[in-house]
Amino acid sequence: MEELICREGTVHSVIFQNAENGYTVLRLLTEEGEVVTVVGCIPCVAPGEHLTITGTWEVHPQHGEQLKAQELERTLPEEEEDIFAYLSSGVCKGVGPTTARRIVDRFGLETLDILEAEPERLQEIRGITAKKAMEIGELFRQHMGLRRLMEFLSRYQLPPVLAIRLRQQYGDGAIRVVEKNPYLLSDDVCGVDFSVTDTMALSMGFAEDCTERLEAALTFELTYNENNGHVFLPKDKLLAATCQLLGCGIEQVEAALDALAEHHAVVVQRIANVEAVYLRRLWEAETSACTRLLALLEMDADEGRFADRTVAEIEKEQGITYAPLQRQAVELAAKVGVILLTGGPGTGKTTTVRGIVALFQKMGLNIVLAAPTGRAAKRMSELTGMEAQTVHRLLGMTWNEAAHQVTFQKTEKEPLEAEAVIVDEMSMVDVSLFSALLRALRPGTRLVLVGDADQLPSVGAGNVFSDLIRSKKIETVFLREVFRQAEQSAIIRNAHRVNLGESPDLKGNQGDFFFLCRRDAQRAVATVLELCKTRLPDNMHIPAEQIQVLTPTRKGPCGTINLNRLLQEALNPRTPGKREILWGERVFRVGDRIMQTRNDYDVVWQKDDGTVGTGMFNGDVGRIAEIDAGGEWLALDFDGRKAPYSVEMLSEIDLAYAQTVHKAQGSEYRCVVLAALPSAPSLMVRGVLYTALTRARELLVIVGDDAAIRSMAANDRQQKRYSGLKWRLCHAGDASE
Ligand SMILES: Nc1ncnc2c1ncn2[C@@H]1O[C@H](COP(=O)(O)OP(=O)(O)OP(=O)(O)O)[C@@H](O)[C@H]1O
């Protein structure tokens, strides 16, 4: 245990302050006349304040010894000179040293009280008009409001950045709003974990069965389950889960649910024989997607006769003869407004898309290609020879800080210019994105949705592609035949076997598919490391950067956490002169492969060609290009998009030498090494194995337990997702919406 140090004194100067997270470096003049550098989260601090700091000494490589604050008490300045220092430091815009001096000379120790409560008295000072007095008073009140809000939050270990958000949302009275209902901290804007707000509220004296608590818990359950992919929850399940969370009776929770429905925070609606409870925004996304899709389906697009002739022309131009189903897909694209194209690897989806693009070009349509991730869009561009972009970018998605939510520039008010939109990797599109896409289409736009419905479903809520197919309301072409060229690939052959519930051929061990039987976890780990470090680079000439290790799980010896630590040591070991940062249990080192683990809309990136943009998204992969000498900043490079990250932002980064199969969805790698040993039953399923296999382009090596792999292939259990899209499409017209 490090020794705890205590220092008391007055803030002499503030050297650095981050308004977002409150991180501050300041000089403290102690009562003994010593000047100490203090670092820590001390939001809104200004010279003249009195601080009592408890913390530990640390040595910064550049700045030397500093006291790292762990606990602190602070009081506003109480001596005249300190009040002057505080006021003249810029805490209140419009008050510089000269004015500050006059104010303090006039009001002395009462200065701060007068500024806040009786600012009109500032008129007693020569040169301060009534208007100016009120202006100063207002600015000072705002400063004090924010300061009190931050202090209030820090009492519960909540970050000061929340104060800024709360003020944007609730104005100057934010602290009163939060004191009245601390559970507001768990809404979409602030996103504080329910358990944190709950502890806070209960300690503030809120009753266990108060309305605020019950309503917040219901909303929390719905949001939590949205993260598990559910668009709604059946009412009985929601009530049971909430009762369990709170330890409350069902009648009380049900009454709170009725109240939420009354003020439209949630929508309760019967879907088939289920009483479905939706968060309002998800209900809007689902119903709007359904209505708009049905409208597109009604379009009279019949250019069938045109298609017959044209398909023959396209075949000639592309030197290809379409298989009957491919031909059917291209013809349908001419005849109807919306088509779904689905099939496993090597069944000719991309070739068919090329045909559809050529057809639309001949029809003179303005075509747009898009995919849900950057990597999928890049691949689509390469394969079709046409520019493709992410759906987010196509829709002009931006982050609205005030509302703390994403907004789309392209909507019905400013729709896309496109006359035909083709989206690939549809299995990754969730209901919110799908609804946003449909909103941006003009009536009559043709829509082609392409994907492999057997891949794992989207990370976000819904089961959109599968629901669309299963509704049978939309023309769908299932490509099932694997083309001869593709048949050469054992990866593709095995992927299809897995899809049929059969075990992949683990004995063949030739071509592009290998299996190394390691039933013992430690041996499996050793083999994965050896493959990445020496065997594949030396024998197959595949550099380590082009190998991706995948595993179903995060935990255990073959989970991402352990594998990443070991792969980092093997592939990017500590070397003198190579900078690294210790962050919690993890080390981040220059050269490491990393992944963004949650959406951060504020990151500013720049490409070498000068293009500047914002936002890094969950799943984006990059590497650490540099770490600054002070260990405060990192330069990250996400496939050419370079972005500075402060050290606090490491909480949104993870090592990516090994990734879970779920995270790798939608990406392809030259070589995949799959670690497959028994783990949590929900992960030992066919969808995970199938998705892992189909991520490899040239080589797949499975290291693991043959019995586990066979049982994965046999287990087609899919986690049920509550979604009403299919039902709505089938019952449009008779639903009482
Ligand atoms: N009509 C056809 N005649 C001959 N070969 C074809 C035909 N259609 C596709 N192929 C070939 O089959 C292989 C797989 O086709 P394609 O890349 O279009 O499939 P895919 O479904 O997009 O596969 P993946 O999902 O793996 O990318 C390719 O080598 C392609 O050239």
Features:
737 residues; five-stranded mixed barrel; globular; 26 helices; binds adenosine-5'-triphosphate; alpha/beta
Overall 3D geometry?
Answer: globular
Q: Identify the quaternary structure here.
A: single chain
Mean pLDDT: 90
Structural class: alpha/beta
Function: DNA-dependent ATPase and ATP-dependent 5'-3' DNA helicase. Has no activity on blunt DNA or DNA with 3'-overhangs, requires at least 10 bases of 5'-ssDNA for helicase activity.
InterPro entries: AAA+_ATPase, Coronavir_polyprotein_1ab, P-loop_NTPase, RecD2, RecD2-like_HHH, RecD2_N_OB, RecD2_SH13, RuvA_2-like
GO molecular function: 5'-3' DNA helicase activity; ATP binding; DNA binding; hydrolase activity; single-stranded DNA helicase activity
Organism: Dysosmobacter segnis
